[in-house]
Specification:
Helix content is 20%, strand content 38%. It is α+β, with helices and mostly antiparallel strands and 182 residues long. The chain has 4 helices and 9 strands, in the order ααβββαββββαββ. It has one domain: Jelly Rolls (Sandwich).
Amino acid sequence: MKKWFMVLAGAGIVLLFPDCKKVAAVVFGGTDVNTPTISDTIPLIPYALPAELRLGQYSFPFNLDSNVRANTAGVFGAASVNSIKLKQLVFQISNGDTANNIGNLETARIELTSNADPTPAEILNTTLPDSVAYKFTYSPSSTPELLPYAKGTQITYTIYGKVRRVTTKPLLFSVYAVLKAD
């Protein structure tokens, strides 16, 4: 009885979705893909300028196929992915104190590019809380489509920020993203 059900269910899926890509989309269901963590130092900020500053540009290798296979036990690969969106971005300061922390920055903005698509996609543009904080987690309600960027082998973040208050020491930070691949 169980075998007949599986045969009928399989036939039903093939009849409802004759295109293999559509079958894969129904079965795949999506997965989260973590980007590598980028760590660096924001130098001592002696002045609070009125303009946004470029805080750094960071590149890392990326293989969409390997990431999807690793998260689906090798069952699905990059060909099963139709969309990639930012699910979450985490920014953390590891050596902060009450005078030197995320509250020293007024705004944060991150652009993403890749060797497959050099046109910047803005994945974060937010005002940071004016309070002592060492970790900021951003979960957007909507984001640009990132699949064209993920088809590359090199992803680049460019990080910008506007200073609210000066710092008295360099700040060690890390940032990583969780992408939703559907």
